[in-house]
Amino acid sequence: MKEDPLSPLRDALLRRDLTAAEERRVTDWLLLHPEAAGDWEADRSLGRALRGLAPAPVPSNFTSRVMAEIRRHQGRAPASGKTGILWRRLIPATGALALLTAVFAGWQLHEADQRQQEACVAGLRALAAIPPEILADFEVIQRLGANPSPVDYDLLAALE
Amino acid sequence: MTAAHDEDAALMLRAQQGDLAAFETLVETYRQPIFNFIQRMIRDPDETEDIAQQVFVQAWKAAKRYRAGSRFSTWLYTIARNLCLNEIRRRGRHPVDSLHAPARNNDSTFERDFEDLRQPGVTSEVLMGELQEKIDHALGDLPEAQRTAILLFREELDYEQIGQILGVSLSATKSLIHRARETLRKRLKAYLRTGVWQPSVSKDPS
């Protein structure tokens, strides 16, 4: 396809009027290509019309509405900025601390259980060590404890 | 990158750190061009306002993804275009008649009831106003990529930025602008010659 030497100027017309130097270039070119004059004038009108399009109306409170929406969003979303950084560091630290505390408490409970079991085992071992003859009179011995013998005052006086 | 672009990037970097005042400055700077772009993409003033608001809110929410090396305007217009495309697709699924939509079916048969453009004595303001109205409607008839390209070019974005927003090469961008300009010029020339606004030709996808 043959390159249109005026193409950059045609694009420029979409944004601005041409400079005097650019206008001279166009005039010179059109002298050599008079058949293109119609297209060029249409381009010029098009550029002028596009540049002159009315700006879309923007409500005067638009910026404040956007900022209010952003603040509302900030209220819901995780904090950002310095506070956010602080929170982002604090949350894992707190979590780690809670985990450590839970592990320590669990270990303590486990230890207490262990001690209780050991005490139980020791008690059972002591019981197993008692000779069977003692256990044969177990009920008699228990009754003795239940009904203590009256005090032998004569013997007590003799001893004193 | 120009000083203005550096300034925008600096403001956006501050916004990334949670600086609302910096972001507010960007909203103030870009609200008018963003409104212009959206209105001519979707042609509905009520929706324009909602989408423009979404553009800035989404830009804030996605601030962390903004990279300092890229231009803020490219990034913002990419968000705007995506939201416009969503709206256009939504309308495709659920077509609605906007109260603000112009009566397009009269365009092709509209005969001017006043003097011919070429005749002296007609005020240029009136003629230009009429021409602008026609061009505004003709923009809506362009395929989406061509319309986006020419609108962004009008908003002072360069070819490279437009290419990035559309996801096409530099030469494809120039071609889109060229084709958009050609289409509009053809319709304009016919109008200037006959006084009749020609109906739009069938849209190709690009």
Number of helices of chain B: 8
Find the count of extended strands of chain B (DSSP E, 2+ residues): 0
Q: Could you give a short account of the major beta sheet of chain A?
A: none
Shape type of chain B: elongated
SSE series of chain B: HHHHHHHH
Radius of gyration of chain A in whole Å, from Cα?
Answer: 52 Å
Q: Treating each run of at least 4 consecutive H or I residues as one helix, how many helices of chain A?
A: 8
What is the chains' assembly state? heterodimer
Pairing-aware structural class of the strands and helices of chain A?
A: mainly alpha
**Helix and strand run of chain A:** HHHHHHHH
**Helix content, binned percent of chain B:** 55-70%
Global Rg of chain B? 19 Å
Question: What characteristics describe this protein?
Answer:
heterodimer, A: 160 residues, mainly alpha, 0% strand, B: 206 residues, 8 helices, 67% helix, elongated
Description:
The complex is a heterodimer of chains A (160) and B (206). Chain A has 8 helices and no strands. The longest helix of chain A has 49 residues, at 81-129. The termini of chain A are far apart. Chain A has helices at residues 7-13, 20-32, 37-51, 62-76, 81-129, 132-136, 138-146, 153-159. Chain B has 8 helices and no strands. Chain B has helices at residues 3-16, 20-42, 45-61, 72-93, 124-141, 144-154, 159-166, 170-194. Chain A binds chain B through residues 7, 10-11, 14-15, 38-39, 42-43, 45-46, 48-59, 62-63, 65-67, 69-71, 73, 77, 80-84, and chain B through 17-20, 23-24, 27-28, 31-32, 35-36, 38-40, 45, 48-49, 52-53, 56-57, 60-61, 128, 131-132, 134-136, 150, 153-154, 156, 177-178, 181, 184-185, 188-189, 192.
